[in-house]
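Shall we go through a protein fold together, starting from nothing but its sequence? Please make up or recall a protein chain and show it to me in full. Go ahead whenever you are ready, and we will take it from there.
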Amino acid sequence: MDGTGAAESSTGAVEGGTGERAGPREPLVLLAAGGLALAVSAIHPKDYFTWLLEVAPILIGVPVLVATYRRFPLTPLAYRLILVHAVILMVGGHYTYAEVPLGFWVERALGLARNHYDRLGHFAQGFVPAVLAREVLLRRSPLRTGKWLFFLVTCVCLAISACYELVEWGTAVLTGDSATAFLGTQGDPWDTQWDMFLALVGAITAQLTLARVHDRQLDRLR
């Protein structure tokens, strides 16, 4: 083997050893796991219309990720978080957010007044997009890590949350009572404000806790 071949072999071994750039296996595994979970969630859901509305972001987002994989592969962290968020959506779609068993268990354990599973969903709605927005801005704009990046990522997540609330409002206007389970307000007049607040908390939490890990993975993509 010549020097070039040895160098390429050594580089491949290092990348495989990190577990971060070992090839397409992990994204494929995550995609298969997500597809299986989606199929399971579609088996006798509480209401098929609500299920479709809840998993719509998955049905839109995953094809985009697949189509752009070769040109713009994401970090392992981003792909893993996307799967977690997708599962949260699938569970909420299967049971409806107001009737997820885990939410009832927490409600009883903590003496809460309602099923708070939807709060988890909106926290994730800020947490996961924060990593995605951060990745896109760092790789496709002049921005670097710092206060402006933190601020703009937070703004993007709040905008996503607000747009989702507008989608819920529009669905309710168009479909009437059929959207009740999709809205999941459970009689709380401040549900929309809580949803956006938790997305804000999620976005801030993700940036404070995952920035260093995310930066290390981004360095390996460069």
